[in-house]
Design goal:
Blueprint (H helix, E strand, L loop, with lengths): L14 H15 L5 E4 L8 E6 L11 E6 L10 E4 L35 H10 L13 H9 L1 H15 L3
Antiparallel strand pairs: 1-2, 2-3, 3-4
């Protein structure tokens, strides 16, 4: 049954769900090698997990889990993402908040969320937090960034401790 209600699309699917039906297969076929997806309920494409397993860098050997919730207002607003693995990282707090510009609804520098972005961009962005988007200059976890600037060797030791304790595959 088609509806003309705001936020609805053909056959009663919301705009979000219509987009997800198209984006999820695209996202699954374009994953970085270090990433995997899991859906607790395949009928709820708006809730899933991303698992990032870096093969190099400070966090190598760990498996980091990110919970992704795609809100009803998607693609006007970004997905909500938290890290459910405890981690020592300048751009991720120990309680799971993430600093990734493309997840910002409003961004001064123009790199935030836009309706032209897709879920695959989010996956690649999360993966990049362990490589080229690692940012010690604009951290969310200030303590971790200052730790790195103060003593790189001790920072790496603490990262390894967190990986061994909380992120072992």
């Amino acid at each position: 049954m088609e509806t003309n209600l705001p936020g609805r699309c053909i056959k009663g699917l919301s705009i979000r769900d219509t987009l997800l039906v198209k984006e999820v297969p695209e996202m699954e076929t374009n994953l970085p090698a270090s990433c995997k997806l899991s859906f607790e309920d395949v009928n709820k494409l708006h809730n899933f997990q991303v698992h990032v397993s870096p093969e190099e860098g400070f966090w190598r050997g760990g498996k980091f889990h990110f919970d992704v919730h795609v809100p009803d207002e998607y693609n006007i607003v970004p997905p909500k993402v938290t890290c459910s693995t405890r981690i020592w990282h300048p751009n991720i707090t120990e309680d799971g908040k993430i600093c990734l510009s493309l997840l910002r609804e409003h961004s001064v520098d123009g790199t935030g969320w836009a309706p032209t972005r897709r879920l695959k961009d989010v996956i690649w962005g999360l993966n990049s937090l362990f490589t080229d988007l690692l940012n010690f200059d604009d951290p969310l976890n200030i303590e971790a960034a200052e730790h790195y600037l103060r003593d790189k060797k001790d920072f790496e030791a603490k990262v390894r401790y967190f990986v061994d304790r909380y992120a072992k595959r």
